[in-house]
Amino acid sequence: MWLVVLFDLPVGTKKERKAASGFRLKLLDLGFEMTQFSVYLRFCAGKEQAESYERKIEQFMPASGKVHIMAITDKQYENIRTYRGRKREQSPQNPNQFALF
Questions:
Q1: CB proximity list for 34: less than 8 A, separation 6 or greater
Q2: What is the per-residue pLDDT for 98?
Q3: Cα–Cα distance between 34 and 5 in angstroms, integer?
Q4: Does 62 reside within a domain?
């Protein structure tokens, strides 16, 4: 299972930029990987682990802005089509059970 975090946070003031940057850094600390700006994902072993990460994310969400958290299955993840320009890239592969980062 994959946990996907999508967010749109305000960055108009110094305080807002600091909050947005802190949120992004905490996602990285939790093992999330940036796939696009404001789109992060992380492999989870199961639904329980995904729910645990969701609770952790809720604890450090900024006071303003919008954050979406969604869980997708391995099969849905494998069906992602990625293009760089007009050239299609290879479909993402699920990591092995005991992959170390």
A1: 24, 28, 40
A2: 53
A3: 9
A4: yes
Place of tokens 């849905």: 76
Say how far apart CA 18 and CA 14 lie, in whole Å: 6
pTM for this entry: 0.82
**Domain limits for position 44:** 2-72
Domain count, the chain: 1
37-88 pLDDT, tens digit per residue, is: 999 999 999 999 999 999 999 999 999 999 999 999 988 988 888 888 888 8
Calculate the CA 6 to chain-centre distance: 6
| Residue at 93 is within a domain | no
- Asked if residue 96 is part of any domain, the answer here is no
User: Is 59 a domain residue?
Assistant: yes
